[in-house]
Specification:
- With 321 residues, the protein is α/β, with parallel strands linked by helices.
- The protein has two domains: 164 residues, P-loop containing nucleotide triphosphate hydrolases (Rossmann fold), CATH 3.40.50.300; 64 residues, Alpha-L RNA-binding motif (Alpha-Beta Plaits), CATH 3.30.70.
- The strands form three sheets. A six-stranded mixed sheet has the order 6-7-8-3-9-10, with helices on both faces. A four-stranded antiparallel sheet has the order 2-1-4-5.
- It is elongated, with a radius of gyration of 24 Å.
- Bound molecules: adenosine-5'-diphosphate.
- Adenosine-5'-diphosphate binds next to helix 1.
Length: 321
């Protein structure tokens, strides 16, 4: 992959106080979709932009892509300001849109050649064959786009975004509405491109996708940045833990105690307790149950995952409820 800059200490993308207010209907104030968001995307990783529907993810991506005009703040792509150096900024980024739109009568090879022409890439420097190979469409080189499966079309979109060898690839909801098998294939492709040195940014509302694929995650909710951390650190932020306990006799009812956030009798002899791990340990939870006269026969704990963190963080801003 072509790299125009090799200084890893510089961010791939830098966003400062980015704001967007859409135009409102006559006499009304429009929607404030981004309320002054700031963060950096480091070079070389897979960066996830996570948030519930309506959070402002697409707005942010579309500003970077030059499709939406920001109403405040600054953004640099590969060191190029999106206002002052738009051409270089655009050349540094490949965007894979959410919707699939191709002229049905073009072949994959033609789609890539046309895109190369759009960027003014001389014939000798084009990489259409290599890209078709990379997205496993070499055998469909000359098929009409309309005959491709949904998965093939998505892979072709990724190849199209890489035609000008950008150091950054942005995927907007790459696996929305695709089946499990195709999702795995797309994840593999993203990981291969990343291994070749391409910085990846993806938006998603699938927590599993972010957890599996991204080494760093920013969460936005309601137009604001809520978190921006390495994935493992973010998951470690979960305060709540859940322990499921089976006891020796039928439960008279839920056992409540200070420090328990929620208890639920799920079966006659099984109790699920959600507790604040900062306030008590699993051992203390079991101690409380014993004090109520039960003998603990079986215990399982569930580790927090990204979903727990996501629910906790986004509920603070009134999102995700
Ligand atoms: P996400 O991609 O996270 O689902 P969006 O960026 O699409 O969120 O939307 C953020 C907010 O801005 C939403 O409230 C949405 O309704 C609003 N919005 C998006 N596009 C437009 C538009 N073209 N005009 C007016 N409001 C818009």
């Amino acid at each position: 992959m072509a790299c125009m800059q090799t200084d890893r200490s510089e961010p791939a993308i830098s966003i400062r106080n980015l704001a967007k207010r859409y135009a409102g209907a006559k006499g009304e104030e429009g929607k404030l979709a981004l309320k002054g968001v700031s963060f950096d995307v480091p070079q070389g990783g897979v960066f996830g932009l996570l948030g519930p529907n309506g959070a402002g993810k697409s707005t942010l991506i579309n500003i970077l892509a030059g499709l939406v005009t920001k109403t405040g703040g600054e953004a640099e792509i590969w060191g190029f300001g999106i206002d002052t150096q738009r051409r270089n900024a655009s050349r540094s980024i490949g965007i894979v849109p959410q919707e699939i739109v191709f002229d049905p009568f073009f072949t994959p090879y033609e789609v890539l050649e046309n895109q190369a022409g759009f960027y003014g890439i001389p014939k000798a420097d084009r990489r259409s064959e290599e890209l078709l190979e990379a997205v496993k469409l070499a055998d469909k080189r000359d098929a009409y786009a309309r005959t491709l499966s949904g998965g093939m079309k998505r892979r072709l979109l990724i190849a199209k975004a890489m035609v000008h060898s950008p150091p950054i690839l942005v995927l907007d909801e790459p696996t929305a509405g695709v089946d499990v098998e195709l999702r795995r294939q797309l994840w593999e492709l993203v990981q291969e491109l990343n291994a070749q040195g391409v910085t990846i940014v993806l938006t998603t509302h699938y927590l599993e996708e972010a957890e599996q694929l991204c080494d760093r995650i920013a969460i936005i909710g309601n137009g604001e940045l809520i978190a921006n951390k390495p994935t493992q650190e973010l998951i470690g932020m979960a305060r709540e833990k859940i322990v499921r306990v089976t006891v020796d006799k039928d439960l008279a009812g839920p056992v409540m105690e200070d420090g328990f956030l929620k208890t639920e009798v799920t079966e006659a002899r099984t109790l699920e307790i959600t507790y604040n791990r900062d306030a008590m340990s699993a051992g203390q939870v079991l101690g409380v149950i014993q004090q109520h006269g039960y003998t603990v026969e079986d215990v399982t704990t569930r580790e927090a995952d990204l979903e727990d963190v996501f629910v906790q963080l986004t509920s603070v801003t009134g999102e995700g409820a």
